[in-house]
Amino acid sequence: MKVVVSSTGKDLNAKIDPRFGRCDCFIIVDTEDMSFVSYDNENKGLSGGAGIQAAGFVVSKGAEAVLTGNCGPNAMTAFSAAGVTVYAGQTGSVREAVERFRTGGIMPLTQANVPEKAGVSTTVGTGAVPTRGIGRCRGGSGRGMGGGGGKRMGGGRGMAMRSGNIPPLPDSGGTPAASRKDTLETLKKQAEELQHQMEAIQTKINSIE
């Protein structure tokens, strides 16, 4: 039986990589004789859809089970459609995970255990947007020295969610209609992208069957 393990390296002694869609490598192991083949994960740097693309790769290799740390909703949907069983929460080495699988010591995952894009690294922006300070501070004694210098760097710690993440929905109170429209268009485009990815996975599944 072929099982795929998300790994940080290319041999059985490598550690489990908990991020299925964005792991460094995939190791396909034959549980009968522990022979294996390793592959680099070419989808780990994608801004979106890494999980579902990785799932398509696994299915194309004829694997019947996946051993990993975490699995998101898109990959789980693809695996469910292809009849591939996912075993999450795995730690230690690739060899240890496969041995646990062989002895029946682990339970399959029935639904995603992390949200979509959980493995995407985020960058916390410094929010270095200058804002005007009140240059003249009038104290009670009339001698307030306005030491603000006229500029103060606002500490806006915006989460710079690059890589095409879904922006937060705008607050309906006082938010321009144009902004809400832009957000809606973005969500529609992302939904369309996901639909195309699912169709690609289904095509691969059909070609294997």
From TrEMBL:
Residues 117-183 are annotated as: Disordered. This is Dinitrogenase iron-molybdenum cofactor biosynthesis domain-containing protein. It comes from uncultured Desulfobacterium sp. Residues 136-158 have a biased composition (Gly residues). It holds the Pfam family DUF5320. Residues 13-102 form the Dinitrogenase iron-molybdenum cofactor biosynthesis domain.
